[in-house]
Design brief:
By secondary structure, the protein is α+β, with helices and mostly antiparallel strands. The chain contains four helices and six strands, in the order βαβαββββαα. A six-stranded antiparallel β-sheet has the order 1-6-5-4-3-2, with helices on both faces. The longest helix is centred in the last third of the chain and has 18 residues. The protein is globular, with a radius of gyration of 14 Å. The chain starts with a strand and ends in a 6-residue tail after the last helix.
């Protein structure tokens, strides 16, 4: 199950047709931290989160713990909708089914509701519950962070 499926730099480059913009950052402030922590369902110790943006599109490379180890995920958001979510690196011993298109395709077109939940439910995978939760949180977080950028 463990493996690097795509380098972050390659994911970003492909998302911007070979010419990615310069990286930017969303600063996690006193006013945004509570929402970030509510989405993740745990404390967040970072001060900023890097992203790449142009026009109405942002690209995020985020980590979230599955069971014991981080799962690295790339997310492309265009006009407040997820257009792509891809597992870039999986470090757990099980639950890697979340990397397959039959699962990730569910995120296509999803946006946030006013209370920062996904506007569509995500079907789970038996035996990969924690990995499913991790990707769902990452999708929500990327959409929320996108709304804080000038590209939203």
């Amino acid at each position: 199950a463990k493996g690097v499926y795509q380098q972050s730099s390659d994911f970003i480059k492909i998302a911007f047709d070979g010419t990615p913009p310069k990286a930017k950052a969303v600063w996690i402030t006193k006013s945004t931290r509570p929402q970030v922590e509510e989405i993740l369902a745990h404390k967040f110790s970072g001060l900023r989160i890097r992203y790449w943006g142009a026009e109405k599109k942002t690209v995020w490379v985020l980590d979230e713990i599955g069971k014991d180890h981080p799962i690295t995920v790339g997310i492309v958001i265009n006009q407040h909708h997820i257009t792509q979510i891809k597992v870039l690196e999986f470090r757990e011993s099980r639950g890697d089914e979340v990397r397959h298109p039959f699962f990730t395709d569910q995120f296509s077109g999803i946006s946030l509701t006013p209370d920062n939940h996904l506007n569509k439910s995500i079907d789970g995978i038996s035996g990969a519950t924690l990995s499913v939760r991790a990707l769902t949180k990452i999708g929500r977080l990327a959409l929320y962070l996108h709304s804080l950028t000038p590209f939203s």
